[in-house]
Amino acid sequence: MDPCFLTASEASAFIAQGKLTVEALVRSCLSRIAEREPTVHAWLYVDPDRAIRLARELDKLPRRSPLHGLPFGVKDVIDTADMPTTQNSPLYQEMQVGRDAACVAVVRNSGAIILGKTDTVEFASGGRKAATRHPMNGAHTPGGSSSGSGAAVGDFQVPLAFGTQTGGSHIRPASFNGIYGIKPTHGAVSREGAKMYSHTLDTIGWYGRSVDDLILVAEAFRLPGIDSMSPVELRGLRIGLCESPQWGHAEPAMQEALYAAGRRLEAAGAVVTDAPLPAGFAKLADAQEIIMHGEGRAAFLPEYLGAYEKLGQDFRDKVENVMQITPASLLAQYAVADALRPQFDGIFGDTLDLVLTPGAAGEAPLGLHTTGDHIFNKSWTLLHAPCVGIPAGRGPQGLPLGLQVVGPRFGDARLLAMAKAIAPVLDITPLARG
Asked: Which of 121, 124, 137, 253 could cross-link with 395 by S-S, CB 3.0 to 4.6 Å?
Protein backbone atom coordinates (compact mmCIF):
# COMPACT_ATOMS: atom_id res chain seq x y z
CA MET A 1 0.00 0.00 0.00
CA ASP A 2 1.31 3.44 -0.89
CA PRO A 3 1.87 5.47 2.30
CA CYS A 4 -0.69 8.10 1.26
CA PHE A 5 -3.43 5.52 1.89
CA LEU A 6 -2.42 5.07 5.53
CA THR A 7 -4.42 6.80 8.21
CA ALA A 8 -2.52 9.40 10.20
CA SER A 9 -2.38 7.10 13.23
CA GLU A 10 -1.07 4.21 11.12
CA ALA A 11 1.59 6.42 9.53
CA SER A 12 2.58 7.79 12.94
CA ALA A 13 3.08 4.27 14.29
CA PHE A 14 5.16 3.20 11.28
CA ILE A 15 7.37 6.29 11.58
CA ALA A 16 7.87 5.58 15.29
CA GLN A 17 8.82 1.97 14.51
CA GLY A 18 11.26 3.00 11.79
CA LYS A 19 9.18 1.25 9.13
CA LEU A 20 8.35 4.46 7.24
CA THR A 21 10.31 7.61 6.59
CA VAL A 22 8.75 11.04 6.60
CA GLU A 23 10.15 11.61 3.12
CA ALA A 24 8.45 8.47 1.77
CA LEU A 25 5.13 9.55 3.26
CA VAL A 26 5.40 13.09 1.90
CA ARG A 27 6.46 11.91 -1.55
CA SER A 28 3.51 9.52 -1.66
CA CYS A 29 1.07 12.31 -0.76
CA LEU A 30 2.62 14.63 -3.33
CA SER A 31 2.36 11.93 -5.98
CA ARG A 32 -1.31 11.42 -5.14
CA ILE A 33 -1.90 15.19 -5.35
CA ALA A 34 -0.18 15.37 -8.75
CA GLU A 35 -2.36 12.53 -10.00
CA ARG A 36 -5.67 13.76 -8.61
CA GLU A 37 -5.44 17.56 -8.47
CA PRO A 38 -6.49 18.03 -12.14
CA THR A 39 -9.75 16.28 -11.24
CA VAL A 40 -10.43 17.24 -7.61
CA HIS A 41 -8.91 20.75 -7.38
CA ALA A 42 -8.48 20.56 -3.61
CA TRP A 43 -5.44 22.82 -3.30
CA LEU A 44 -4.67 26.49 -3.78
CA TYR A 45 -0.97 26.19 -2.91
CA VAL A 46 1.52 23.34 -2.65
CA ASP A 47 5.32 23.60 -2.76
CA PRO A 48 6.59 20.03 -3.35
CA ASP A 49 10.29 20.89 -3.18
CA ARG A 50 9.94 22.62 0.16
CA ALA A 51 7.84 19.78 1.57
CA ILE A 52 10.48 17.22 0.59
CA ARG A 53 13.28 19.31 2.10
CA LEU A 54 11.34 19.58 5.37
CA ALA A 55 10.66 15.85 5.34
CA ARG A 56 14.36 15.06 4.95
CA GLU A 57 15.19 17.33 7.86
CA LEU A 58 12.57 15.69 10.05
CA ASP A 59 14.00 12.26 9.22
CA LYS A 60 17.28 13.44 10.80
CA LEU A 61 15.63 14.60 14.03
CA PRO A 62 14.31 12.69 17.05
CA ARG A 63 10.55 12.13 16.97
CA ARG A 64 9.11 14.90 19.12
CA SER A 65 5.44 13.86 19.16
CA PRO A 66 2.99 11.49 17.44
CA LEU A 67 2.47 14.21 14.80
CA HIS A 68 6.15 14.06 13.80
CA GLY A 69 6.34 14.01 10.01
CA LEU A 70 2.61 13.85 9.37
CA PRO A 71 1.46 16.03 6.45
CA PHE A 72 -1.31 18.58 7.08
CA GLY A 73 -3.55 20.54 4.75
CA VAL A 74 -4.56 24.01 5.95
CA LYS A 75 -7.76 25.69 4.88
CA ASP A 76 -6.77 28.88 3.10
CA VAL A 77 -8.44 31.22 5.56
CA ILE A 78 -5.85 30.20 8.16
CA ASP A 79 -2.49 31.98 8.13
CA THR A 80 0.77 30.20 7.38
CA ALA A 81 4.12 31.92 7.76
CA ASP A 82 5.69 30.46 4.62
CA MET A 83 2.71 30.27 2.25
CA PRO A 84 0.11 32.67 0.88
CA THR A 85 -3.25 33.05 2.61
CA THR A 86 -5.57 34.11 -0.19
CA GLN A 87 -8.96 33.48 1.48
CA ASN A 88 -10.01 32.48 -2.07
CA SER A 89 -10.64 36.17 -2.61
CA PRO A 90 -9.47 38.48 -5.41
CA LEU A 91 -8.47 40.91 -2.65
CA TYR A 92 -5.69 38.75 -1.23
CA GLN A 93 -4.21 36.69 -4.05
CA GLU A 94 -0.62 37.65 -3.20
CA MET A 95 -1.03 38.00 0.56
CA GLN A 96 1.55 36.29 2.76
CA VAL A 97 1.19 37.21 6.40
CA GLY A 98 4.56 35.89 7.55
CA ARG A 99 3.22 34.35 10.74
CA ASP A 100 1.52 31.06 11.53
CA ALA A 101 -1.99 31.00 12.93
CA ALA A 102 -2.06 29.52 16.43
CA CYS A 103 -3.45 26.17 15.24
CA VAL A 104 -0.78 25.88 12.56
CA ALA A 105 1.95 26.75 15.06
CA VAL A 106 0.74 24.01 17.41
CA VAL A 107 0.99 21.22 14.85
CA ARG A 108 4.14 22.58 13.18
CA ASN A 109 5.87 22.83 16.55
CA SER A 110 4.77 19.24 17.18
CA GLY A 111 6.66 18.10 14.08
CA ALA A 112 3.90 18.08 11.46
CA ILE A 113 4.58 19.22 7.89
CA ILE A 114 2.27 21.83 6.40
CA LEU A 115 1.85 20.41 2.92
CA GLY A 116 -0.15 23.28 1.48
CA LYS A 117 -3.29 25.42 1.51
CA THR A 118 -6.64 23.93 0.61
CA ASP A 119 -9.40 25.63 -1.33
CA THR A 120 -12.29 27.25 0.49
CA VAL A 121 -15.43 29.25 -0.06
CA GLU A 122 -14.35 32.91 -0.09
CA PHE A 123 -13.57 34.09 3.45
CA ALA A 124 -15.13 30.78 4.58
CA SER A 125 -18.48 32.51 4.41
CA GLY A 126 -19.90 33.34 0.98
CA GLY A 127 -19.02 34.89 -2.34
CA ARG A 128 -16.85 32.69 -4.52
CA LYS A 129 -17.20 28.93 -4.19
CA ALA A 130 -14.14 26.70 -4.09
CA ALA A 131 -13.16 25.02 -7.36
CA THR A 132 -13.01 21.70 -5.49
CA ARG A 133 -15.08 18.77 -6.74
CA HIS A 134 -16.27 15.71 -4.89
CA PRO A 135 -13.50 13.09 -5.23
CA MET A 136 -15.99 10.26 -5.83
CA ASN A 137 -18.15 12.13 -8.34
CA GLY A 138 -16.90 15.39 -9.77
CA ALA A 139 -20.40 16.54 -10.66
CA HIS A 140 -21.16 16.91 -6.94
CA THR A 141 -19.98 19.39 -4.33
CA PRO A 142 -17.55 18.22 -1.62
CA GLY A 143 -19.32 20.57 0.77
CA GLY A 144 -18.03 23.78 2.19
CA SER A 145 -16.70 26.04 3.23
CA SER A 146 -13.89 23.58 4.10
CA SER A 147 -14.17 22.18 0.59
CA GLY A 148 -10.55 21.43 -0.23
CA SER A 149 -9.66 20.08 3.19
CA GLY A 150 -12.55 17.62 3.22
CA ALA A 151 -11.92 16.43 -0.33
CA ALA A 152 -8.14 16.14 0.10
CA VAL A 153 -8.46 13.92 3.18
CA GLY A 154 -11.25 11.89 1.60
CA ASP A 155 -9.22 11.39 -1.58
CA PHE A 156 -6.08 10.18 0.28
CA GLN A 157 -4.07 13.24 -0.75
CA VAL A 158 -3.23 14.18 2.84
CA PRO A 159 -3.98 12.34 6.10
CA LEU A 160 -4.95 15.40 8.17
CA ALA A 161 -6.32 18.85 7.45
CA PHE A 162 -7.73 21.88 9.23
CA GLY A 163 -11.21 23.21 8.58
CA THR A 164 -13.38 25.84 10.23
CA GLN A 165 -17.06 26.00 11.15
CA THR A 166 -19.37 28.96 11.59
CA GLY A 167 -22.54 27.15 10.55
CA GLY A 168 -21.77 23.70 9.17
CA SER A 169 -18.57 24.29 7.23
CA HIS A 170 -16.56 21.51 8.89
CA ILE A 171 -18.87 18.64 9.85
CA ARG A 172 -20.90 18.79 6.63
CA PRO A 173 -17.87 18.18 4.35
CA ALA A 174 -16.87 15.31 6.67
CA SER A 175 -20.29 13.77 6.03
CA PHE A 176 -20.14 14.35 2.28
CA ASN A 177 -16.60 12.97 1.84
CA GLY A 178 -16.91 9.91 4.07
CA ILE A 179 -14.27 11.01 6.58
CA TYR A 180 -13.94 11.80 10.26
CA GLY A 181 -13.93 15.31 11.66
CA ILE A 182 -14.08 17.07 15.00
CA LYS A 183 -15.49 20.50 15.73
CA PRO A 184 -14.20 21.05 19.25
CA THR A 185 -15.92 22.99 21.98
CA HIS A 186 -15.98 26.64 20.98
CA GLY A 187 -12.88 28.34 22.36
CA ALA A 188 -10.96 25.14 23.14
CA VAL A 189 -8.66 25.81 20.15
CA SER A 190 -7.31 29.30 19.55
CA ARG A 191 -8.68 31.04 16.46
CA GLU A 192 -5.82 33.54 16.34
CA GLY A 193 -4.65 33.91 12.75
CA ALA A 194 -7.83 32.63 11.10
CA LYS A 195 -10.23 34.91 9.22
CA MET A 196 -12.98 35.99 11.57
CA TYR A 197 -16.61 35.86 10.45
CA SER A 198 -18.48 35.48 13.74
CA HIS A 199 -16.71 35.69 17.09
CA THR A 200 -19.62 33.83 18.69
CA LEU A 201 -19.55 30.91 16.25
CA ASP A 202 -16.20 30.47 14.47
CA THR A 203 -14.46 27.25 15.50
CA ILE A 204 -11.35 25.51 14.16
CA GLY A 205 -11.45 21.75 13.71
CA TRP A 206 -9.60 19.00 11.86
CA TYR A 207 -10.20 16.03 9.61
CA GLY A 208 -8.75 12.51 9.57
CA ARG A 209 -9.72 9.06 8.38
CA SER A 210 -10.28 7.49 11.80
CA VAL A 211 -11.14 8.58 15.32
CA ASP A 212 -7.56 7.75 16.31
CA ASP A 213 -6.42 10.37 13.79
CA LEU A 214 -8.60 12.97 15.48
CA ILE A 215 -7.23 11.95 18.88
CA LEU A 216 -3.60 12.41 17.72
CA VAL A 217 -4.33 16.05 16.96
CA ALA A 218 -6.49 16.52 20.04
CA GLU A 219 -3.50 15.45 22.14
CA ALA A 220 -1.33 18.10 20.49
CA PHE A 221 -3.95 20.73 21.34
CA ARG A 222 -4.27 19.45 24.91
CA LEU A 223 -8.03 19.40 24.74
CA PRO A 224 -9.45 19.24 28.26
CA GLY A 225 -9.33 15.70 29.63
CA ILE A 226 -7.41 14.25 26.68
CA ASP A 227 -4.39 13.24 28.80
CA SER A 228 -6.58 11.14 31.08
CA MET A 229 -8.93 9.82 28.40
CA SER A 230 -9.75 6.18 28.99
CA PRO A 231 -11.37 3.65 26.64
CA VAL A 232 -15.14 3.42 26.61
CA GLU A 233 -17.08 0.18 26.32
CA LEU A 234 -19.82 0.17 23.70
CA ARG A 235 -21.96 -2.21 25.74
CA GLY A 236 -24.14 -0.15 28.05
CA LEU A 237 -23.31 3.16 26.37
CA ARG A 238 -26.41 5.36 26.50
CA ILE A 239 -27.01 6.85 23.06
CA GLY A 240 -29.82 9.24 22.22
CA LEU A 241 -31.01 9.36 18.60
CA CYS A 242 -31.82 12.99 17.95
CA GLU A 243 -33.88 13.92 14.91
CA SER A 244 -33.58 17.60 15.95
CA PRO A 245 -36.23 20.18 15.04
CA GLN A 246 -34.86 20.15 11.47
CA TRP A 247 -35.79 16.50 10.81
CA GLY A 248 -38.08 17.41 7.93
CA HIS A 249 -35.05 18.62 5.96
CA ALA A 250 -33.36 15.20 6.10
CA GLU A 251 -33.43 13.12 2.95
CA PRO A 252 -34.99 9.65 3.30
CA ALA A 253 -31.57 8.00 3.06
CA MET A 254 -30.26 10.08 5.96
CA GLN A 255 -33.33 9.35 8.05
CA GLU A 256 -32.83 5.64 7.45
CA ALA A 257 -29.07 5.93 8.13
CA LEU A 258 -29.72 7.35 11.59
CA TYR A 259 -32.18 4.67 12.62
CA ALA A 260 -30.21 1.87 10.97
CA ALA A 261 -27.19 3.02 12.97
CA GLY A 262 -29.32 2.93 16.10
CA ARG A 263 -30.37 -0.64 15.38
CA ARG A 264 -26.77 -1.75 14.83
CA LEU A 265 -25.62 -0.03 18.01
CA GLU A 266 -28.43 -1.62 20.00
CA ALA A 267 -27.52 -5.05 18.62
CA ALA A 268 -23.93 -4.40 19.74
CA GLY A 269 -25.05 -3.76 23.31
CA ALA A 270 -25.61 -0.01 23.47
CA VAL A 271 -28.71 1.41 25.14
CA VAL A 272 -30.38 3.38 22.36
CA THR A 273 -33.31 5.71 22.96
CA ASP A 274 -34.98 8.59 21.18
CA ALA A 275 -33.69 11.95 22.41
CA PRO A 276 -35.91 14.76 21.15
CA LEU A 277 -34.79 18.24 22.07
CA PRO A 278 -37.17 20.38 24.14
CA ALA A 279 -39.35 22.76 22.15
CA GLY A 280 -37.22 25.82 22.88
CA PHE A 281 -34.32 24.38 20.91
CA ALA A 282 -36.21 25.00 17.67
CA LYS A 283 -35.22 28.66 18.08
CA LEU A 284 -31.51 27.91 17.68
CA ALA A 285 -31.40 27.66 13.89
CA ASP A 286 -32.81 31.14 13.36
CA ALA A 287 -30.72 32.51 16.21
CA GLN A 288 -27.54 31.16 14.60
CA GLU A 289 -28.41 32.81 11.29
CA ILE A 290 -29.08 36.20 12.84
CA ILE A 291 -25.93 36.12 14.98
CA MET A 292 -23.77 35.00 12.05
CA HIS A 293 -24.96 37.76 9.73
CA GLY A 294 -25.12 40.35 12.47
CA GLU A 295 -21.51 39.80 13.49
CA GLY A 296 -20.46 39.59 9.83
CA ARG A 297 -21.09 43.34 9.51
CA ALA A 298 -17.99 44.10 11.55
CA ALA A 299 -15.97 41.22 10.10
CA PHE A 300 -16.09 42.50 6.51
CA LEU A 301 -16.11 46.24 7.13
CA PRO A 302 -12.33 46.60 6.46
CA GLU A 303 -12.66 45.01 3.01
CA TYR A 304 -15.80 47.02 2.31
CA LEU A 305 -13.97 50.27 2.99
CA GLY A 306 -10.70 49.30 1.35
CA ALA A 307 -11.74 47.34 -1.75
CA TYR A 308 -15.44 47.91 -2.36
CA GLU A 309 -15.31 47.29 -6.12
CA LYS A 310 -13.60 43.92 -5.70
CA LEU A 311 -15.78 42.80 -2.82
CA GLY A 312 -18.60 40.42 -3.67
CA GLN A 313 -22.21 41.48 -3.22
CA ASP A 314 -22.70 38.90 -0.48
CA PHE A 315 -20.20 40.74 1.73
CA ARG A 316 -21.49 44.18 0.81
CA ASP A 317 -24.95 43.05 1.88
CA LYS A 318 -23.61 41.98 5.26
CA VAL A 319 -21.89 45.30 5.91
CA GLU A 320 -24.91 47.25 4.65
CA ASN A 321 -27.15 45.16 6.92
CA VAL A 322 -29.56 44.17 4.18
CA MET A 323 -31.19 41.77 6.66
CA GLN A 324 -31.90 44.77 8.92
CA ILE A 325 -30.59 43.07 12.04
CA THR A 326 -31.03 45.41 15.01
CA PRO A 327 -29.08 45.49 18.27
CA ALA A 328 -32.25 44.38 20.01
CA SER A 329 -32.64 41.32 17.76
CA LEU A 330 -28.99 40.39 18.26
CA LEU A 331 -29.32 40.66 22.01
CA ALA A 332 -32.45 38.52 21.90
CA GLN A 333 -30.65 35.74 20.01
CA TYR A 334 -27.65 35.89 22.35
CA ALA A 335 -30.12 35.40 25.19
CA VAL A 336 -31.61 32.34 23.48
CA ALA A 337 -28.17 30.75 23.18
CA ASP A 338 -27.15 31.72 26.71
CA ALA A 339 -30.23 30.03 28.11
CA LEU A 340 -30.05 26.85 26.06
CA ARG A 341 -26.33 26.04 26.35
CA PRO A 342 -26.42 25.00 30.03
CA GLN A 343 -29.76 23.29 29.42
CA PHE A 344 -28.17 21.15 26.69
CA ASP A 345 -25.13 20.38 28.85
CA GLY A 346 -27.50 19.25 31.57
CA ILE A 347 -29.16 16.48 29.55
CA PHE A 348 -26.01 14.35 29.85
CA GLY A 349 -25.08 12.29 32.88
CA ASP A 350 -27.74 10.24 34.60
CA THR A 351 -29.50 8.83 31.54
CA LEU A 352 -27.58 9.91 28.44
CA ASP A 353 -23.94 9.73 27.35
CA LEU A 354 -24.09 11.21 23.86
CA VAL A 355 -26.42 12.38 21.12
CA LEU A 356 -26.33 10.82 17.65
CA THR A 357 -27.78 12.98 14.88
CA PRO A 358 -27.34 13.64 11.13
CA GLY A 359 -24.14 15.33 9.99
CA ALA A 360 -25.88 16.72 6.90
CA ALA A 361 -29.24 16.55 5.17
CA GLY A 362 -28.10 13.69 2.94
CA GLU A 363 -25.55 12.92 0.26
CA ALA A 364 -23.46 15.64 -1.36
CA PRO A 365 -25.78 17.59 -3.68
CA LEU A 366 -25.35 17.72 -7.43
CA GLY A 367 -23.62 20.83 -8.76
CA LEU A 368 -20.82 23.19 -7.75
CA HIS A 369 -23.17 26.14 -7.29
CA THR A 370 -23.92 24.87 -3.78
CA THR A 371 -22.01 23.47 -0.81
CA GLY A 372 -25.10 21.91 0.75
CA ASP A 373 -27.41 22.98 3.54
CA HIS A 374 -25.98 23.51 7.04
CA ILE A 375 -29.37 23.06 8.68
CA PHE A 376 -28.18 20.03 10.70
CA ASN A 377 -25.09 21.82 12.04
CA LYS A 378 -26.02 25.38 12.91
CA SER A 379 -27.75 24.63 16.23
CA TRP A 380 -24.81 22.60 17.58
CA THR A 381 -22.43 25.35 16.49
CA LEU A 382 -24.39 27.97 18.40
CA LEU A 383 -24.58 25.68 21.44
CA HIS A 384 -20.75 25.60 21.37
CA ALA A 385 -20.98 21.82 21.76
CA PRO A 386 -18.23 19.48 20.54
CA CYS A 387 -19.21 17.39 17.50
CA VAL A 388 -17.47 14.39 15.92
CA GLY A 389 -18.43 13.38 12.40
CA ILE A 390 -18.45 9.63 11.62
CA PRO A 391 -19.17 7.98 8.24
CA ALA A 392 -22.31 5.85 8.33
CA GLY A 393 -22.88 4.25 4.94
CA ARG A 394 -23.87 5.39 1.47
CA GLY A 395 -26.93 6.96 -0.10
CA PRO A 396 -28.79 6.02 -3.28
CA GLN A 397 -26.21 7.75 -5.48
CA GLY A 398 -23.37 5.80 -3.88
CA LEU A 399 -22.00 8.85 -2.05
CA PRO A 400 -21.22 8.88 1.68
CA LEU A 401 -23.62 9.67 4.47
CA GLY A 402 -22.27 10.87 7.79
CA LEU A 403 -23.67 11.12 11.28
CA GLN A 404 -22.30 13.18 14.14
CA VAL A 405 -22.06 12.55 17.85
CA VAL A 406 -22.55 15.55 20.11
CA GLY A 407 -21.74 16.02 23.77
CA PRO A 408 -21.63 18.72 26.45
CA ARG A 409 -19.23 21.64 26.29
CA PHE A 410 -15.64 20.69 27.15
CA GLY A 411 -16.58 17.03 27.03
CA ASP A 412 -14.42 16.66 23.90
CA ALA A 413 -12.12 13.94 25.26
CA ARG A 414 -14.91 11.67 26.43
CA LEU A 415 -16.82 12.33 23.21
CA LEU A 416 -13.79 11.16 21.22
CA ALA A 417 -13.51 8.04 23.38
CA MET A 418 -17.19 7.26 22.79
CA ALA A 419 -16.84 7.99 19.07
CA LYS A 420 -14.00 5.47 18.91
CA ALA A 421 -16.23 2.86 20.53
CA ILE A 422 -19.13 3.32 18.13
CA ALA A 423 -17.26 4.10 14.90
CA PRO A 424 -16.71 0.44 13.88
CA VAL A 425 -20.48 -0.10 14.07
CA LEU A 426 -21.35 3.07 12.14
CA ASP A 427 -18.64 3.08 9.44
CA ILE A 428 -19.96 0.15 7.39
CA THR A 429 -18.63 1.29 3.98
CA PRO A 430 -15.13 2.68 4.59
CA LEU A 431 -13.35 4.49 1.77
CA ALA A 432 -11.49 2.10 -0.52
CA ARG A 433 -7.75 2.41 -0.05
CA GLY A 434 -5.54 2.05 -3.12
From this structure: 253
